[in-house]
Amino acid sequence: MAALTTDDLAAPLGRAGADRRPRARNRFSVARTLRYLAMLFFLLVVLIPVYVLVVTSFKGIGDASPARAWSLPQTWTMENWQAAWTALAPAIGRTVQMVIPAAIISSFLGSMNGFVLARWRFRGADLVFTLILFGMFIPYQAVMIPLLKLVLGSGLPSGIPSLIVLHVIYGIPITTLIFRNYYQSVPNELIEAARVDGAGMLRTYVSVVLPISIPSFVVVLIWQFTSAWNDFLFAVFFSSSQNGPVTLALNNLANGALLQNYGVSMSGALLASMPTLLVYILLGRYFIGGLMSGSVKG
Amino acid sequence: MLRQIRRWGPPLLLIAPSLIIVGVFVYGLIAININTSMSDIHKAAQATGQAPSHFVWFENYATLLGSDAFQHSLKNLLLFTAAFLVGTMVVGFVWAWLLDRPARGEGIFRSVYLFPMAVSFIASGVVWRWLLNSNQGAQASGLNRLFEIVGLGFLQNNWWNNVNWGIAAIALPAVWQLSGYVMALFLAGFRGIPEELREAGRIDGASEWKLYRYVLFPQLSPVALSAVIIIGHMSLKTFDLIMSISKPANYQTKVPAIDMYVFKSSFDYADSAAVGVILLVIVAVLIVPYLARTARAEKN
Q1: Which of A158, A219, A255, B110 fits as disulfide partner to A289, beta carbons 3.0 to 4.6 Å?
Q2: How many CB atoms lie within 10 A of CB A130?
């Protein structure tokens, strides 16, 4: 039981406590210095777009000349942020309404499927699992035309309601995978003990399995939250700028006008990325747990 | 009978909704899509069912694959995938290698390298569109201006506005976003190698470089394969980034996923569906052997 900690899910990147690597001796060496310089160089390169985003978002019209492209703003202004907020706020609100139910429903579906597929051995169980998994890799372009007709014909309101349903449906494979891998690591004795006590599968699931699934739930919730928040493909096919999520609104803000206003679109890009970045910063380990399970099992 | 229901009922009850949904929304829709791709629905009236449509077998595929425009998309897809794969694999591997040995502040480096993963392609497209601005010389902004500033002015180029190679410029932001992911995979691979193996190498007197080259790197090939499959299939589906940086109607940077959207927008459902099927086939060639292998490996 003690083995089932959140560390199992984030284990790939290791925790300080579990670090068995030999400590580097604390002395100067050329190789070590070079390594640090390389790490620092890559750090700066990765942060270049962040610098541009932040700096440009505070620039006024006076800074528009290409010669000042990489300079700090002459005068720092909040105008771009205000304009971006006015343009994106309704869409951000709609996106929140979309990702929360989508993430919660997918997590429960994934948990049920994962439990059954991890614990219930029947002939063809592996085939069923592989068939579900394939749904994770398909290009959605290959189902889009009939899907459009189906969703239109179903009478489901376009925009957020349709998108919730779609994120839940196409989230089934990945959430099933994450939960199945987790439940396979649950000690058999735990399930057997419940069975000996006379609990059926449903009882076992609700009273034994669900309570120990919280770390997996966090991973899956974060994963689904992030991918639904960042989705653009379904958004562009199933919603409009009036009823769609923030990615669509941001793309219209950035590419809609004839004259590009980079100050506003970059403030908008930062606004639209805030929630997922916040999740990454606060719950990074769980985020990584989701990433790792996306790689199936090599 | 009752015992059968008691044994099979509950698990079936838990899993049936998802099985039906996946069956319909993945496999059912693929089948309908294949059917649409073999019809002559090229106009809005046919798409809405007001005008009759016919079954034309593989005609749409023949026209598509024979057209210069679609061949250009396929060539772009190949170029993009090559650049994306090579970029993420090399950068991700180097980062993992740099961070494999303990270092002060390694957590910060790891987090920064990985953070672009949390941002949408649409948001990062906004800044990369600015960075990849094709203006040069006095008009240069973005990366071209930066090259000028640091004395690498000869590197200036017109990025994605180049008809032949422009698509490779779009791979740059893709590499920026996913190298951290490949790094995380490789780091997990390094951590999975038993410490005894390293110890044994050191006892045998292998230098640090030889230890990596002959003992540790070979252990990483399954991880490398996973990374290639994941990045490869993402690359084949690339859509958001191109929509965000260039526009859908941009010939230089179009790929099949963009064509699919453009066809759909003009109610050419048959060609749109056909492009979808072609993409599916390309992805399946990559994914099916991998899934089969994974399933077999789990059995053993």
Answers
A1: A219
A2: 17
Q: Please determine, for residue A217, whether its predicted confidence score (pLDDT) is greater than 90.
A: yes
**What is the pLDDT at residue A261?**
85
Does residue B276 sit at the A interface (CB-CB below 8 Å)? Answer: yes
Measure in Å the smallest separation between the Cα of A138 and chain B Cα atoms.
6
What is the predicted pLDDT for the residue at A226?
Answer: 94
In whole angstroms, what is the distance from residue A138 CA to residue B141 CA? Answer: 39
Q: Looking at residue B246, what DSSP letter applies? A: S
Residue A10 pLDDT > 50: no
Q: Chain B neighbours among A 157-176 (CB < 8 Å)?
A: 169-170, 172-173, 176
Of chain A residues 75-104, which have a CB less than 8 A from chain B?
none
Q: For residue B55, which phi and psi values (nearest 5 degrees)? A: -90, 125
| CA pair distance A201, B219, nearest whole angstrom | 40
* A6 band by pLDDT with thresholds 50, 70 and 90: very low
In a domain, B31, yes or no: no
B99/B93 Cα distance (integer angstroms): 10
The reply to whether B151 touches chain A by the CB within 8 Å rule is no
A70 → closest Cβ in B112, B123, B145 = B145
- Calculate mean pLDDT across residues B228-233: 93
pTM: 0.91
State whether A173 and B22 contact (CB < 8 Å): yes
Beta carbons of A213 and B103 less than 8 angstroms apart:
no
Task: Identify the CATH number of the domain in which residue B193 sits.
Answer: 1.10.3720.10
Count of structural domains within chain B: 1
Length of chain A: 298
Residue ranges of domains in chain A, CATH in brackets: 83-293 (1.10.3720.10)
- CB within 8 Å of A139: residues ≥ 6 apart: B236, B237, B257, B276, B279, B280, B283
Q: Name chain B contacts of A23, Cβ cutoff 8 Å.
A: 102
CB-based contacts of B40-47 (< 8 A; 24+ apart in sequence): B40/B270, B41/B268, B41/B269, B41/B270, B42/B267, B42/B268, B42/B269, B42/B270, B42/B271, B43/B267, B43/B268, B44/B267, B46/B267, B46/B269, B47/B267, B47/B269
A133-137, B29-33, B248-252: which is most confident: B29-33
Distance from CA of B163 to the nearest CA of A (A): 21
Residue type, B227: A
| Closest CA in chain A for residue B99 | A39
Rounded Cα gap, residues A242 and A220, in angstroms: 29
For A259-293, the pLDDT digits (tens) are 678 999 999 999 999 999 999 999 887 877 777 76
Lowest mean pLDDT among B67-76, B115-124, B154-163: B154-163
Residue among B100, B129, B243 minimizing CB distance to A232: B243
Identify the pLDDT of residue A278: 95
Q: How far is B117 from chain A (nearest CA, A)?
A: 9
d(CA B299, CA B8) in angstroms, rounded, equals: 23
